Amino acid sequence: MHVWAVHVKPLRIGLFTDTFLPDQNGITTSVGLLASELSARGHCVDIIAPDFPGYREVRPGVVRVPSLSYLYLPTYRLAWPGRRDFATKYDLIHTHTPLTLGMAATRLARKWGVPQVATYHTHIEAYTHYLPGMTTLQRRTRVITRVAGLHYRRAQAVITPTVGMLDVLREMRVAWPVVIPTSIDPQSLEAGAATHNPWPAGQRRVLSVGRLAREKRFDLVLDALARLPDAALLLLGEGPERSHLEAHARAIGVAERVQFLGVKPWEEMGGYYRWAELFLFASDTETQGLVLQEAQLMGVPVVAVGARGTLSGVQSGSSGYLVAPGDVGGLVAASRKLLDSAARHTAFAAQGRQFARQWTPGMVTERTLEVYARVLGYEVPGHGMLGQMPRTLTPGRESSFVYDR
């Protein structure tokens, strides 16, 4: 894919996110890479995020806002900003979450009269179980969708990583959804430090990565493992469901073939991917699923549930297989296809590397800069990807533009 560089004057840009380091997740990866790429192009970028008591900052340009612990997710921090926490006026505000910092950023954009771009990273409706009674209330009233819509409709453009999420944004009545896949840094992943082989000798090496939470459906990964007797599973991640998953592994007789290794530093992740033979993933709530891209980039064929964002994240039948949500039998059958055929596994590994390299951090940043240029009123070259967009973003008028392959 050719990248048309967007030339705009150096900007002061505020990237507002309710989750960032030391949390390791897709939003953290996306925001960190975007900030680095924008800075490399001469823009002045701040990442505004909640503070974490005792955490030592590892990168420049992060502005920490006072925060509180969150009752239902004790490892997360809920920002509690005051007026004095925002001394810098930005030329453009880009929100990455709709919680307290996202809402504060929206108010600042209106106060300063500057454009706001938002990215819809997380399928918010899938997280209602973290608030008692909210799942039932959402089902009956769509309250989460309506409240989130208030935030996203105030932005001049809303970016989401896959086509599969456009229907969610349209339900929120977002006028200008933009599809720009999130990327990862292939160089740092491939340079991951070598590790010893953590899998037991003689067992097929299955890997899964993610936050150990109910919506990620690692219980189904364990159920599939129970029907893959020659395989052992490595689970990288931490979260509120760990004790439940450990108990489930014992109950179905796979505890001796599962290792819960917790969260590993990004610098080590490439080493684990390098050892794995198969990546197994059962979440049906992803907006994209960056771990799928990571696995394929490292030549690990993927077997995953095909739903929402994952539908764009795997080339089913080429770089991996997608099965229906909840289909444990499908996960098992697809895994056997790859584990039982060396030729198929080699072909899928090569095709996965090629597929995952389609979107680089530089490409993602150039596409994002085109969005910035448009909402700031810059002329975008006619051959650019935004050349077909109307010159003005008229509220209430439905449209979308898609960069998704």
Characterise the protein shown here.
The chain is of the alpha/beta class and 405 residues long. It folds into two domains: 12-183 and 360-402, 3-Layer(aba) Sandwich (Rossmann fold); 186-356, Rossmann fold (3-Layer(aba) Sandwich). 35% of the residues lie in helices and 18% in strands. The strands form three sheets. An eight-stranded parallel beta sheet has the order 3-2-1-6-7-8-9-16, with helices on both faces. Strands 12-11-10-13-14-15 form a six-stranded parallel beta sheet, with helices on both faces. Helix 1 crosses helix 14 (361-376), helix 7 (218-225) packs across helix 12 (328-339) and helix 10 (290-297) packs across helix 13. The chain is globular and about 60 Å long. The chain starts with 11 loop residues before the first strand and ends with a strand. Mean pLDDT is 88; it is low at 383-401.
What secondary-structure arrangement, pairings included, does this model have?
Blueprint: E1 12-16, H1 26-40, E2 44-50, E3 62-65, E4 67-70, E5 73-79, E6 92-95, H2 100-112, E7 116-119, H3 134-141, H4 143-153, E8 157-160, H5 166-171, E9 177-179, H6 186-190, E10 204-209, H7 218-225, E11 231-236, H8 242-251, E12 258-262, H9 266-275, E13 278-281, H10 290-297, E14 302-305, H11 310-313, E15 320-323, H12 328-339, H13 342-356, H14 361-376, E16 401-402
Tell the overall outline. globular
Radius of gyration (CA) equals: 21 Å
Residue windows where pLDDT falls under 50 for at least 5 positions: 383-401
**Given the helix and strand composition, which structural class is it?**
alpha/beta
Largest sheet: 8 strands, parallel
Strand count: 16
CATH domain class of the largest domain:
Alpha Beta
What does the average pLDDT come to? 88
CATH superfamily of the largest domain: Glycogen Phosphorylase B
Total domains, how many? 2
Number of helices: 14
- What is the succession of H and E elements? EHEEEEEHEHHEHEHEHEHEHEHEHEHHHE
Strand order, largest beta sheet: 3-2-1-6-7-8-9-16
Query: What portion of residues is helical?
Result: 25-40%
How much of the sequence is in beta strands? 15-25%
CATH architecture descriptor name of the largest domain: 3-Layer(aba) Sandwich
Distance between the termini: 9 Å
CATH topology-level name of the largest domain: Rossmann fold
